[in-house]
Amino acid sequence: MDPALLREREAFKKKALATPSIEKKKTSKDDSQFKDDSKKSKSKSSSSVSAGPKLDASNYKTMTGSSSYRFGVLARIVRHMRARHQEGDDHPLTLDEVLDETNQLDVGNKVKQWLQSEALQNNPKIECTPDGKYNFKPVYKIKDKKSLLRLLKQQDLKGLGGILLEDVQESLPHCERALKSLAQEILYISRPTDKKKILFYNDKTATCDVDEEFVKLWRATAVDAMDDAKIEEYLEKQGIKSMQDHGPRKPVVPKRKKTAQKRRQFKKPRDNEHLADVLETYEDNTLTQKGVVLREVPTHNHPFHDGRILKKLRLNIIFKAFNEAENRAEQKRALETVELIQRSTASDDSE
Fold first, then answer.
1. Is this entry keyworded Membrane (predicted)?
2. What pLDDT, on the 0 to 100 scale, is given for residue 317?
3. Against a cut of 0.85, is the pTM above it?
4. Which of 31-35, 162-166, 326-330 is least confident?
5. Do the bridges between strand 186-190 and strand 126-128 make them parallel or antiparallel, or are there none, so unpaired?
């Protein structure tokens, strides 16, 4: 660098250090103004970036949402109507009253229109009244234990079988009390396919005293070796119809047979018979064609290796097997260690 410039630079530094400078501290007003300005700038930038509508809780619910949101509203309504029915509240409600009781007043107009015109009217668990109100629609119209007992008797007389406990719990308000009071009038049987409980009427008029001899004969007959199909076949031969389970059955998935993996057989390449006159074979270091020896091929045909091979022959380091090479290496290491020991002893003696 030019020495004149360096001298000017040093002089400028001395003059700057000699002149005193006083810094004024910023007041609180200045700080507040600076913060306000920064907030305004941030708000402007955020407003310019987010030009689309914001997604808050209120805006999300009022938007014309996806089908999952709509069916979530519908499922909540159905659960609430079922709970009302099970508690004994049977008076119908308008759509606004239902939404008010389920805390869903912020539902959009399009969702309301969909509920009123399509969803609630076509739902099998909701009953629509002529005046536009809604009520829960149970499987069986039973209100107390007497109507439940009457329904079970009709099922028994008509031969329709039993009733699912789930349907009774859904249809009868305060179901647990009614079932406890009718414990002697009802029979519980669990279905073997899905373990669901079914209620039957306990017809006590059909009970009769059986002689002990018949009981002994019944217990003496062994049916361990017979399955249900054979027992059913025997009863049909005797003219007796057996009870059949018409409930849902699990589909039997056929087992896949494991196919035995065949070993791959490698096919030998076929000789090219049309090229027999052209092909040549090398056997025992000889070039043959059609079984006639044309010329002998030397085993070593690299002249630049000859010098190295001769050098190894002079040093006697060509071996027939690996064991010979290993033994020679061990002997060499032993000789080197002996020489080192001799050198160390000779140096000690000289000292």
1. no
2. 76
3. no
4. 31-35
5. unpaired
